[in-house]
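User: My advisor asked me to double-check a structure prediction for Alpha/beta fold hydrolase before group meeting. I don't want to rely on an old file, so could you generate it fresh from this sequence?
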Amino acid sequence: MTVISRGTAGKWFRRYPARSGAPRLRLVCLPHAGGTSTLYHRWAGLLPDAVEVLATQYPGRQERFGEPCASSMTELADAIADALEPELDAPVAFFGHSLGSAVAYEVARRLDDRHGVVPERVVVSGRGAPHTERPGGTLHLLDDELLVAAARRLGDVGSAVYDDPDLRPLLLPSLRGDFRLIESYRPLDVTPLRAPVTAVGGTADPGCTLPELLSWSALTTASYEHRLFPGDHFYLVPQEEALVRFLAERL
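Assistant: Sure, here is a fresh prediction for Alpha/beta fold hydrolase from the sequence you gave:
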């Protein structure tokens, strides 16, 4: 069952309630560039009964199509941290894929800085740590064909939608906006988290190598571990059940 709450949290999250009633943990899931909350719609059914999933919906897509995409990481992370404030009556953990990894790091920092809330775990997927961000990314400046081709080089999961002439104009603005956001992201203060960090990725991901995943070990004062799954940048789709089982053992 999916519940979209009222208020700010309802705008930002699709809620998949814990099957046991009141949650003992909320897992906040953050998608990749151009991605949507539906990436995580099966996870609640695969996680322990007491885990509630909050699948984040960035502006500029699906039911938030009429809203402009976030223009900066600061804007996006501030808004998500604000929306999470009413959800802090239960412990939280984060899973972020690609762009979502950087967002997870930034939101986790804000929860600790503002409220002293340390997530149970921060799981980062398919992207190196913020202090390894490459300067001067220009994918967001490419024309439509080249932008889609660049996205497809990472993996072909779900990319057929860009071939639909009716859907393409609706989908490309969020893809381009998200690339612009992550390519302009240059954190000035990269402080280690107090939460344990788990880094996961695909064995054949052209966008995130093992050394890039290992870079997250510098951004925690608690424990760190990593795990690779078979697949490319979007390994988490064909490996969904194995990945969620792995996460369940750590939540």
